[in-house]
Every structure is written in structure tokens, then in C-alpha cells.
Amino acid sequence: MSNQFKVMLAGWVVLGLVVIVLAIYRKMLAKQDDISLHVLDSSAGLIGQQANQTQKIDMIEKWGKALTAVELVYGLGLAAMYIYAVWVINQSTFYSDK
Predict the structure, then answer these.
(1) Chain center to CA of 72
(2) How many structural domains comprise the chain?
């Protein structure tokens, strides 16, 4: 395996770790989320907090989905490169034996 492929594989692993950290962070924020509806004047301060919390969760979810898609495409690309490299090596070995 070439060093260039190892670097690309390490990048894929780091991207996967970022996606996992985002998922854990989103889960922690969702645990703190207050799902009750605040409509009274006495709880007016909580409305802004709920909106802010929901906005944070939505942003993390948007980035999580996008990075997951990038992770999938990147991984499929790496797999295709690896399979092609193995195929080329096997072809050259097969034809050099004859």
C-alpha cells in the first residue's frame, strides 16, 4: 500500500471521527432540550432558549448529514481505487508469468 493511499485513508478515518463526534454532541444537546410548549408570560424567557437550542440542533444535524454523505462518497472512492490497484497488480503479475 502506498504512502499516498495511507494518507487518504487516514483522512477518511478522521472525517469519520468528526461525524461521530457531531452525532455525540447532537445527542447531548437533545438530552438537554426542553420539549414542553411554553406559552405563559412567566415562561417567556424559555421560549428564546428553546428556539436557540432548536437552531443549534438543526445546524448540527445539517452538517452531520452533509459530512456523512461526503464520508460515504470518499469511502466508496477509496474502495474503488484500492480494488483497481489490486486488479492492475494482478493483471501485470498474470501476464508477466507467461
Answers:
(1) 8
(2) 1
The amino acid at residue 8 is M
* Whether the model pTM is above 0.85: no
Per-residue pLDDT of 7-35, as tens digits, reads 999 999 999 999 999 999 999 988 876 66
C-beta of residue 83 within 8 angstroms of C-beta of residue 24: no
Cβ contact 15:71 at 8 Å: yes
Query: Which residues span the domain enclosing 69?
Result: 3-34+41-96
Q: Distance (Å, rounded) from C-alpha 23 to C-alpha 71?
A: 14
Distance CA 42, CA 85 (A): 66
Q: Are 53 and 32 in contact (CB under 8 A)?
A: yes
Identity (one letter) of the amino acid at 34? Answer: D
